[in-house]
């Protein structure tokens, strides 16, 4: 005598991911054209402190842009400048400051928050936007290679809690993503390089032709040539967008995010107390799991050396002293807890073809670490 | 030379809304059957203090149920008991306690939070569940008429902030909703009655036959007969579910929630410092906007009197002294701010047929209030 009603519906999401240059020069209409035309728009700007320092005229430029386009939108207060990097996600007072601004300046569900910064700041502001009024429209303007080709084009946001990364967050697609390549010019060499490892990641598990392209352009990328970097970012972003829309955007099921090389990377960031940056750790994590794939008999030595050579040409380290010892192995267990359920690790069946396994041989991991150490010391790798 | 990638995808949501009795008696398998079978489930229970007091054996029963079904699921800690009513949404330490429990007891995205309580507690726990690990599965077990037929079957959660109701929240469909009619037996008369006004609301704007049914059963409902109450709840819940799945579940566009009678209700709750409960305020708000619809020439006096008579038979007041004066009119403006954009008010074109307007005549509102005052004083209304 139970009654059961099955509720079911689908919610359509749609957002543009744009690539441009100098988006706040007055003649660039990309930003204003994104805003809905049904009423005069109100836009709250939040700016990463690091970006503001590297671009000292940015806020004046934003004000001038708003002034010039005052028929379309207005800014209710000066842009809010927040600390950059992981620190912005560790202290709850920072996201709460953004929430409070939505209250003070009447930013409602039909208004906008535009965030300019690196991936961490975008994660944090995205969380504040997602929970205020059950979701204020968010325009993401990522400023690093890593956020432009990877984190900022997706559907997640987050802050840290209990010493755990991304403990609080939601799946909330942005209103729009605006990649401005101009911001890349002021990145330091480490940040320029770091984001490339996520492109190598998707290439290795999904698309041999993209890997071959990166390999061919690795010297140019290392020299900070802008044209191949733009192509790399657009191609990598497209692959991420396809992955998200392809199957399970909000990760309800057991489908995995694109996390090749990430179990060791997460652990390494912690073991080095974040001396090694995320993209650098991912490079080492990829190198490790590629070496493991080779030792397992899945990819040839020649293929492994191609991977290592690309990283070295780009200027990455493929080893860190903290990889030695048993701490690394604990990372496997933590990765399992992080995802919930069964351990799932992506390895390489071939260049451009990932395959999942559900256990890893600890002895083979130790051997892989030893190989990485010697790769790191070798000046010239012989590749085919 | 801008490049634009249009990302688009749909996310399917599905959840059962179940109606049963005595769901934690050991032989009732509804709850265990809901849990996914791919692994042993972990369920964190949160219980409304008021429910716990009215059902002093509830927690022992939950423990016995978990013990009897330990092959399917386990509870990692004693149920967390939280203060009930709006207070649970006003103090951030309460939802944070739930978030902290997910951390302490390893409640991940494949675990569950089951919340037993009134609408406010379900809103608050829903918010904690939605933001922890980007969404822990939530099983809602509403215990009041109002939450069983209305708030808990939908897709929203929230807490209050800055003195504003529901300032923080998300649109996050539950994993399942389990309505146990047994909980209704211990409601006080005011709470039993309150929830009926939301059913009258949907009936008046959408379904004449449902209104006629409520009218025919109003005396039985007033006498707390369980059978018509169960029918009312199921029918009202079904209408809400249809409304949500019908068009714009996450309210991206300008489609309105089912908020007939709610602009005055929200204001009245505040003006009376919550002496008047939500459902009671909604009854008065509906009576007000129905009277306004009559004075505007949209519904006949006979139809208006039928509406007023139903409320009076059920034991509702259709007037409160705080309706007088100019404060009420301010509620119109606040309602507009709350929804964002243009003012939109639902009125009645006929019984069972709502129609939206975008302005209200203040003089006609004052006249409606005067009429309500006299209706409230009249013992016997002459209805057809």
Number of beta-strand segments of chain A: 11
Going by CATH, the architecture of the largest domain in chain A would be Up-down Bundle
Structural class by SSE content of chain A = alpha/beta
Which geometry of chain A do the CA atoms define? Answer: globular
The H/E string of chain A reads EHEHHEEHHEHEHEEEHHHHHHHHHEEH
Cα-to-Cα separation, first versus last residue of chain A:
71 Å
Sketch the major β-sheet of chain A.
7 strands, parallel
**Low-confidence sequence ranges of chain A:** none
**What is the CATH topology of the largest domain in chain A?**
Dehydroquinate synthase-like, alpha domain
**Percent of residues in beta strands of chain A:** 15-25%
* Number of H/I helices of chain A: 17
Q: At the fourth CATH level, what is the homologous superfamily of the largest domain in chain A?
A: Dehydroquinate synthase-like - alpha domain
The structural domain count of chain A equals 2
Helix content range of chain A = 40-55%
Mean pLDDT of chain A: 94
Q: Mind telling me the CATH class of the largest domain in chain A? A: Mainly Alpha
Largest interface: A-B, 66 and 66 residues
Spatial extent as radius of gyration of chain A: 22 Å
Assembly category: homodimer
Domain 3-dehydroquinate synthase N-terminal (chains A, B): 80-193
Cofactor (chains A, B): Co(2+); NAD(+)
Domain 3-dehydroquinate synthase C-terminal (chains A, B): 195-329
Protein name (chains A, B): 3-dehydroquinate synthase
């Amino acid at each position: 005598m139970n009654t059961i009603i099955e509720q079911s519906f689908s919610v359509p999401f749609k957002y543009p991911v744009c690539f441009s240059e100098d988006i706040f020069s007055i003649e660039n209409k990309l930003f204003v054209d994104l805003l809905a035309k049904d009423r005069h728009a109100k836009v709250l700007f939040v700016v990463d402190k690091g970006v503001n320092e590297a671009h000292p005229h940015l806020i004046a430029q934003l004000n001038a842009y708003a002034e010039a386009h005052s028929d379309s939108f207005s800014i209710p207060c000066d842009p809010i400048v927040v600390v950059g990097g992981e620190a912005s996600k560790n202290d709850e007072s920072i996201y709460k400051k953004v929430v409070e601004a939505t209250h003070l300046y009447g930013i409602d569900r039909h208004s906008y928050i535009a965030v300019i910064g690196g991936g961490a700041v975008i994660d944090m502001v995205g969380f504040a936007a997602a929970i205020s009024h059950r979701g204020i429209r968010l325009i993401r303007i990522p400023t690093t290679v890593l956020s432009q080709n990877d984190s900022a084009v997706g559907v997640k946001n987050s802050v840290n809690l209990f010493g755990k990364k991304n403990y609080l967050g939601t799946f909330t697609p942005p209103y729009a993503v605006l990649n401005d390549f101009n911001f890349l010019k002021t990145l330091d060499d480490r940040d320029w390089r770091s984001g490339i490892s996520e492109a190598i990641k998707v290439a290795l598990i999904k698309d041999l032709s993209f890997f071959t392209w990166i390999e061919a352009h690795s010297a140019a990328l290392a020299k900070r040539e802008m044209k191949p970097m733009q192509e790399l970012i657009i191609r990598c972003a497209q692959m991420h967008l396809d992955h998200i829309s392809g199957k399970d955007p909000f990760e309800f099921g057991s489908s995995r995010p694109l996390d090749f090389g990430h179990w060791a990377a997460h652990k390494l960031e912690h073991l080095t107390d974040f001396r090694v940056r995320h993209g650098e750790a991912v490079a080492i994590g990829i190198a490790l799991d590629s070496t493991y794939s080779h030792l397992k008999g899945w990819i040839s030595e020649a293929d492994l050396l191609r991977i290592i050579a690309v990283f070295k040409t780009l200027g990455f380290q493929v080893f860190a002293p903290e990889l030695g010892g048993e701490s690394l192995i604990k990372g496997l267990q933590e990765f399992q807890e992080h995802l919930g359920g069964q351990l799932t690790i992506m390895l390489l069946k071939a260049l451009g073809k990932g395959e999942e396994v559900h256990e890893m041989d600890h002895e083979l991991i130790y051997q892989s670490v030893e190989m990485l150490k010697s790769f790191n010391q070798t000046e010239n790798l012989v590749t085919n």
